[in-house]
Amino acid sequence: MVISTTDPASDQQVHSSTFASRYVRQPLPRFKMPNSSMPREAARQVITDELMLDGNPRLNLASFVTTWMEPECDQLMLAAINKNYVDMDEYPVTTELQNRCVNMIANLYHAPIGDGETAVGVGTVGSSEAIMLAGLAFKRKWQQKRKAQGKPYDKPNIVTGANVQVCWEKFARYFEVELKEVKLKEGYYVMDPVKAVDMVDENTICVAAILGSTLTGEFENVKLLHELLTNKNKETGWDTPIHVDAASGGFIAPFVYPDLEWDFRLPLVKSINVSGHKYGLVYAGVGWVVWRTKEDLPEELVFHINYLGSDQPTFTLNFSKGSSQIIAQYYQFIRLGFEGYKNIIENCIENARILKEGIEKIGRFEIVSKDVGVPLVAFALKDSSKHTVFEISENLRRFGWIVPAYTMPADAQHVAVLRVVVREDFGRSLAERLVSHIELVVKELELLPSRTAIGSAHVDAVQEENKDPKSGKKTQREIIEDATRTWRRFVNSKKTGVC
């Protein structure tokens, strides 16, 4: 976009890029605030020029986060950008909109709310904060019970699958809770309920199930987990509860899989988190956590403050935050309604099906994701002995596509996949274009020398034990594992270390 402005020196109209260059004759000092001011037009243009090097959010198929909203909602968000959500007394309507959202979500998840009662929950800046809050509630409830029983309460643990999002690891580390992970295996990339319940002991504060695995989009079997855990609780006298991390699937399952039992219909499910900025269809910065009943949230974790004008109960890790995303979430709820959400999610699922079929027709890939779950397509190369999914990911960036390649967690580290998340703004035409570009990249790579063979030879030149003792040559699986390790190191070397 070209913006004209007046050059104060010559009083002539000039392009903003030219205008900015007149004030920024030298590179801006790194990590140091400039000594002097510059005109606002110049500052904007300097930043605009740098941001051109960012990827296109609409083509970022790595992210579950919403990248498009209606202009009317954009206007509402901009109008509320200067409202601090925590000032509940000054902005009571915003607070009321948040409470309405909590009640809508709780009802969507079949919370047992009586007549005249309100749901128990809170808006957060994302599912990471929501999970921290839910985890703290479980830890405190468990500690209270152990203290009352005169038993040790210094070694709490949580049982999860190795496929959990990193925020669970953060919670465990930050709040001193042992994370007991059920390892994965090739062909089964979600938590095994049987193994999970076997790992439960008297120090387990909850079992965390994932409704929409980040790796493959698959829903874990919460109902089976509930049945097994109920039986174990009866045998042991424990009351180990379940938390459902529905960050990705919480705004999918109610609309397209209404008969799937994973929510508060199961008595052991005490809390659920969901990301409003994923399939809740709001820009980044909003999540939700709801509890089954008021008793499941310890009162001692709720703070009451009055220095902002009135008594305000609050249970958050963050304090000040913008109101825009809360307002945007309410807009989507009343704008779309149940039918609107259902139509959008069904359309996403259909586009994921089209993408999956197109990738299958290429003939080089194995589909790893499942049909029931989050609308995404995860796929692996049938033969990685010459080239890898990391090379495909790297080459797709020429066309603007950001398609992540990654390896599975333990014990399936040798499996490397590509993943495409299908969001509301990823239509059929884009799906077909992506398939054509994937096919083109694959054909081009086949004409190039194998970087995999070079990399694996370099990494494992001294590891003679990897050789087949009979033939003296590496097996196909060993070659793939070598290649995966090589490219994983390459990807890690590019990470900035910034969260």
TrEMBL record:
GO biological process terms, semicolon-separated: glutamate metabolic process
Protein name as it appears in the record: Glutamate decarboxylase
Enzyme class, first EC level, given as a word: lyase
Family under the similarity heading: Belongs to the group II decarboxylase family.
Gene Ontology molecular function, alphabetical: calmodulin binding; glutamate decarboxylase activity; pyridoxal phosphate binding
Cofactor(s) of this protein: pyridoxal 5'-phosphate
Modification N6-(pyridoxal phosphate)lysine, positions: K278
Highest taxon above the source species: Eukaryota
Keywords: Calmodulin-binding, Decarboxylase, Lyase, Pyridoxal phosphate
A Pfam family hit: Pyridoxal_deC
Record field: catalytic activity: L-glutamate + H(+) = 4-aminobutanoate + CO2
E.C. designation(s): 4.1.1.15
